[in-house]
Amino acid sequence: MVIFDEINDGPGFCLEELAPAELDFVRGLITAQYLDRIGALQHDLVPIARERGIARYHTLPTTFEHGKSWPKAARLLDPKYVTDFARMGFFRRVQAQFGASAAISHGELNWRLVRPNQPGDVGPIHADKWFWDAGYGYGSMPAGFDRFKIWVAVHTEPGANGLCVKPASHRQEWKHHFETKDGVSKPVFDEDPDAIETELLPLAAGGMVMFHDELLHGGVVNRGNTCRVSIELTVLFDRAEAVARAAALRGELALA
Ligand SMILES: [Fe+2]
Hints:
This protein is α+β, with helices and mostly antiparallel strands. It has 8 helices and 11 strands. The model has no long low-confidence stretch (mean pLDDT 95).
C-alpha cells in the first residue's frame, strides 16, 4: 500500500495500528493525565476513577460540570512524548514511505473523551484544513511541507462510536466560512450535515486512521456503553520528497 496515494488519490484515508504494547503505553499516558485532572476537579474521586478506568468515567459520582472541565489544555499530552510516538511502528512505516523528514507536529497530542449518549460531546463535521486556515493556534507550516492527520482509537466499541469520514470528500470543495467568537476564528460548515453520507470507521482500540487534511470527518454520538477515548496527531512531511518516494514505491509494487 502506498500511503501517499491512498490519502491523496484514493479514499482520502488509510488504516494502520498500534502494537499491543504501544496501545498500553498510550493508555497509560492518557490515564495518568486523566487522573491528575480528576484529582484537581474532585480530589476524593481519584481512587474510584482509577479503579473503574477512563472508559467508565461516565459512571463516576461527579459534582463538576463535564462540559467546562476538560478544556484542550487538560487533554494535551506533554510534547515530550512526541519522541515516544515517533519511535512506534506505525510512524517508522510512515517515515519509510515519506522520508526521514516526516515528523509529528509538536503542537498536538490531543486526546478526547466522549461519553455514551451525549450529543454535546462530539463536534460538527469538518475538514482539519479549515482550522489551520483559521490560524487556530496550530502555528505555521514549514515551507514545502504538507500534513496529514492521524486519529487513534484508545477505547472504542466498533460500530457504536468512533470517527466517521466522507470517503473522497477531500477532492471536492465544501462550503464553509469563519466566525470569530471570543477572539478566536472558527470554521463553520455551510452545507447540510445530514445530507452528507459518512461512514463510521470500525476501529477497535489500537486501530488508527491516517487521513487527508481536507477530508470531511467528525465524531459520532457514542451509542456504546463506555466512554470513547481517542488521540490525534498531525504528521508534517516534505512534499517533494513524499512525491518522489511514492513514485518509486509504486514502481516497486508494480514489479513485485
Ligand atoms: Fe478533525
